[in-house]
Amino acid sequence: MQNGGAGHPVVNIGVVGHVDHGKTLLVKALTGVWTDRHSEEVKRGISIRLGYADATFRRCEKCGSPDGLTIAESCPACKGPARAVRTVSFVDSPGHETLMATMLSGAALMDGALLVIAANEKCPQPQTLEHLMALDLIGIRNVVVVQNKVDLVSREEAVKHHRDILEFVKGTMVEGAPVVPLSASYGVNVDALIQTIEERIPTPKAGEGTSPRLPIARSFDVNRPGTLPAKLVGGVVGGSLAQGHLKVGTEVEILPGLKREEGGRARWEPIRTRVVSLMSAGRPVEEVTPGGLIGLGTQLDPSLTKSDGLVGQVLGAQGTLPPVWNKLTMDVRILQRAVGQQKGDKIEPLKPGEPLMLSVSTAITVGSIVATREGHLEVTLKRPVCAEAGARVAISRRSGSRWHLIGAGTIKA
User: CA-to-CA distance for 358 and 210, rounded, in angstroms?
Assistant: First the structure.
């Protein structure tokens, strides 16, 4: 089991998989929080935006594992006290095929992942395969497979489906990962899943002595309509601190920043502001460290942050952030076949002038190919990105009405 206790989350765990396989219900079983809060999500019954929820895993010393593992303060088996082990943040990613870009943005925050596969559907479904490929290309190796909805099938069907999952992951980076059967609807075997998470998804080591850096995954205007100007508060941004420490009162900048037009040409100016509040695990704090999802109150005009207006930008101490790129040169690995379709088609060679969707950390942009050769790609960006040389880039190509993941690259200086 991991060492740690209640308080600031120390690890981010993504929850990914095909649409309607029970990801949001699983997060509720693990945290008690329903992450679909947006009105359109409630109406359509699917996740559209990234959802977040924190949970403190606890263990009863008397009952041990897994019976004594819980998110409650008392043991479900003996009703005795349960000691806090560590607090984690879950990132609930949408599974619908048209929302792959949102899933890729969320993957940039993940230290590990739960790949959710419903027992009442054939394995694999298109987005099950695409999400697994995305985890591989982005470099997420700590994965637990969750066989959900076993309450909807017979024992024989569940056993056969379990074999299908093992066959599906054979030869992938998930081969050998544990497969935990459960029912999120009834909370059955959630304790075994908590034990498996503790064993398979470690707390990442935080870089000490480095400048704070936060890829922005959400941004909000928290003012209610009709709020008087004197009572308006600044915009809020959210994400996960990738490195360093961040305190209330820190002067920060956000890159690439604001787009300005001058003489028919666009340029980007850094946005500078001050951190006026910090929220972690639903509580105000004075300082945050890497691990877990946080919210930052700022002095920004809330019109800049409303409706996720700053998603994809990077926040950090002034003068410390990576370069802003308008063009990218990348070493790339292109897959042999497209994923995310019932039958993957062979990927045709990339051509100059062709548009590609590029996912760099939480940023999603479109790049037009300038030059391509084996293992090498040059693109100009419609919207610049702030990233280190060596950063991973997920590459998608338009096919029909949507983008399909076709490969990955790393940025060259």
Answer: 27
What is d(CA 275, CA 39) in angstroms, rounded to the nearest whole number? 29
How many Cα atoms sit within 13 Å of 170 on the Cβ side? 8
- Buried/exposed code over 293-322 (b: 16+ C-beta within 10 A; e: otherwise): bbbbbbebebebbbebbbbbbbbbbeeebb
CA distances from 319 to 89, 253, 272, 364 (A): 29, 8, 11, 24
The token pair at 289 is: 């460290």
Under DSSP, is residue 13 helix (H, G, I), strand (E, B) or coil?
Answer: strand
> Which amino acid is present at 341?
Q
How many residues appear in the chain? 413
Tell me the chain's radius of gyration from C-alpha atoms: 22
- Enumerate domains of the chain plus CATH numbers: 11-200 (3.40.50.300), 213-317 (2.40.30.10), 324-411 (2.40.30.10)
256 prior amide bond cis, ω within 30? yes
Pairing of strands 11-17, 112-118: parallel
One-letter identity of residue 192: A
pLDDT per residue, tens digit, the chain (413 aa), is 444 456 677 888 988 887 776 888 898 999 888 754 433 333 333 333 467 788 899 999 888 788 888 888 888 888 889 999 998 988 877 644 444 555 666 667 788 999 999 999 999 887 788 778 878 877 888 999 999 999 999 999 999 999 999 999 998 889 999 999 999 999 999 999 999 999 999 988 765 568 999 999 889 999 999 999 899 999 999 988 888 999 999 999 999 999 988 777 888 999 999 999 999 877 899 999 888 888 999 999 999 999 999 999 999 999 999 999 999 999 998 877 666 555 556 788 899 999 999 989 889 999 999 999 888 999 999 999 999 999 989 888 887 777 888 888 999 98
Task: Quote the CA–CA distance of 213 and 387 in Å, as a whole number.
Answer: 11
What the block records as the tokens of 51 is 């959802």
User: Would you say 117 and 99 are in contact if contact means Cβ atoms under 8 Å apart?
Assistant: no
Amino acid at 336: Q
> Amino acid letter at 179?
V
Nearest CA to 364 out of 390, 396, 336 is that of 396
